[in-house]
Design a protein that fits this description.
224 residues, alpha/beta, Glutaredoxin, six-stranded mixed beta sheet, two-stranded antiparallel sheet, 6 helices, 17% strand
């Protein structure tokens, strides 16, 4: 076999390189570019979903650093138009039997809370202060402790000097009775119930001292 001159060797090497490139392209499946594009798009969607997804829910099974929210904010009902509060009853923390019906004829502030809920801790001083302030006016405060242990709930009440009772609702049964007014997972939620038993106002999320004081006055002004 005759030997190629030195000047022809670079040309031969270039041809071999092109042949290797052609073989690699022919082996790679034709659908590979489509798969690569689809995977890239899926990855982008996952990143976007993580960034724009819902806020992590706060339950005893999660991190306990926020609250499970429905549509947050305050709703004020015109006199006589609010939904009628159901006649719920249950066992209060401490073991006593308690019914909402015993408060009929009074303005009632009903607060759904949990010791595991950060906004519940933030609003607790305002609720305790308002309960003391309105006691002589006949305004009744009642809590509903959601998805909690009695020990944790009672410690919460001691820490914030909460003197009004709370129904123990570990299975959300009382909260679900209020599903027309309280989102089943909306913690905290505060209802202000007028003397006629209709809900006069609702706060989903942390209630403030000034805001709740205004809502109590609004309910007190409604006819019995």
């Amino acid at each position: 076999m005759s030997r190629l001159p030195d000047s022809a060797r670079p040309v031969r090497r270039a041809r071999r390189a092109r042949l290797r490139l052609i073989r690699r392209r022919s082996i790679r499946p034709r659908w590979w570019p489509a798969v690569f594009t689809a995977l890239a798009a899926a990855g982008a969607m996952m990143v976007a979903g993580c960034a724009a997804g819902p806020v992590a829910q706060d339950t005893p099974a999660s991190n306990g650093q926020s609250f499970v929210s429905g549509s947050g904010g305050t709703t004020v009902f015109k006199a006589g138009t609010g939904p009628v509060a159901p006649a719920v009853a249950g066992t209060a923390l401490g073991g006593a039997k308690l019914s909402l019906a015993v408060y009929h004829g009074h303005v009632v502030v009903m607060n759904f809370w949990g010791s595991w809920c950060t906004p519940c801790r933030a609003e607790a001083p305002a609720l305790a202060q308002l309960a003391r302030q309105f006691r002589s006016s006949g305004v009744q405060f009642l809590g509903v402790d959601i998805r909690d242990s009695p020990a944790s709930a009672e410690a919460f009440m001691r820490d914030f000097s909460i003197q009004y009772p709370s129904l123990n609702d570990p299975g959300d049964e009382i909260a679900l009775d209020f599903r027309s007014t309280v989102p089943p997972a909306g913690i905290p939620t505060t209802l202000v119930i007028a003397r006629n038993g209709r809900v006069a106002a609702r706060v989903i999320g942390e209630a403030s001292y000034d805001g709740l004081k205004y809502l109590i006055a609004h309910a007190a002004a409604q006819p019995s």
